[in-house]
Design brief:
β3, α8 and β4 form a beta-alpha-beta unit. This protein folds into two domains: 102 residues; 122 residues, OmpA-like domain (60s Ribosomal Protein L30, Chain: A, 2-Layer Sandwich). The chain has nine helices and five strands, in the order αααααββααβαβαβ. The protein is an alpha+beta fold.
Length: 287
């Protein structure tokens, strides 16, 4: 049975009877309040969430209306109206409680969903971080192995080069020294054939070692400084160009002229000047 339809049919009949039989009697405030509160319950959340309480309020209101129709001055009429009003208010109150419970449940579900999503995201990020760390560790191990291999190769190269040139170590790395007379004619920057033979061996020893190389050219202090700087630069570049032609990677080798700077012996003697006229190949440690 549809209680809204039943009430819609019953209330006008009761009200008409009350006007006809009760005459000029004015409904008590309790009955007016009951009617208003019932209407609010019927048209609000109470009817949507718990129509049972609305039905009970409807039955009580009809009883109050009937009592007012039959005996408008009887005290029990007022009591019945108060009961009907309270049932209508109770229906609204219960609807409010149900709505709050539903809202709370929805909020809890949303919070649980959000937390689950956040947890899944955090786990995904943690997994990605762990993977990155693992990859970094693997790369570090690979780099260390590669470095160890390069150091072993350089050690082998050192043994080979030591047979044809002077080798020492300083804070720059491994320093290979070739005397100028071995490489060039006096005042020239073109390589001698014998120099090329030595550089062939050096290139073979260094070209696969992936170590940075700097070629420095040096002169004695005889003559103008500008001339010596220019000569040292050309000699260093000649050695660099030749080593590149023999397979040393171009991006790993550079040339620089030092002229008479950084002498290793006294320029006052013939022997000292001969030692100062040199080319140094500095093989830097792999970083």
């Amino acid at each position: 049975m549809n209680w809204n339809h039943a009430l819609a049919a019953a209330v006008p009949v009761i009200l008409a009877g009350s006007v006809g039989c009760a005459g000029e009697h004015i409904p008590p405030k309790s009955l007016v309040d009951a009617r208003a509160d019932y209407a609010q319950a019927r048209n609000g959340l109470a009817m949507q969430l718990d129509p049972t309480d609305v039905h009970e309020a409807d039955v009580s209101l009809q009883s109050a209306e009937q009592a007012f129709h039959d005996s408008p001055d009887d005290p029990s009429t007022n009591d019945l109206a108060i009961i009907a009003d309270r049932k209508a208010l109770f229906a609204e109150s219960q609807a409010g409680v149900l709505k709050a419970q539903q809202d709370t449940q929805v909020a809890i579900q949303q919070l649980q969903t959000t937390r689950s999503q956040q947890l899944a995201m955090a786990q995904g990020q943690l997994g990605a971080t762990q993977m990155q760390l693992q990859q970094q560790q693997q790369q570090t191990v690979a780099d260390q192995q590669k470095l160890a291999t390069l150091e072993a190769n350089l050690k082998d190269a050192r043994s080979t080069i030591a047979k044809i040139a002077s080798i020492k170590d300083d804070d720059r790395g491994m320093v290979i020294t070739l005397q100028g007379e071995v490489l060039f004619k006096t005042g020239k920057s073109d390589l001698k054939p014998a120099a090329m033979a030595k550089l062939d061996q050096i290139a073979d020893a260094l070209k696969s070692k992936e170590a940075p190389i700097t070629v420095y050219g040096f002169t004695d202090n005889v003559g103008a400084r500008d001339m010596n700087m220019d000569l040292s630069e050309h000699r260093a570049e000649s050695v660099r160009t030749y080593l590149i032609s023999k397979g040393v990677p171009q991006d790993l080798i550079k040339a620089e002229g030092k002229g008479p700077d950084s002498p290793v012996a006294d320029n006052e003697s013939i022997e000292g000047r001969a030692q100062n006229r040199r080319v140094e190949l500095v093989v830097s440690p792999k970083k």
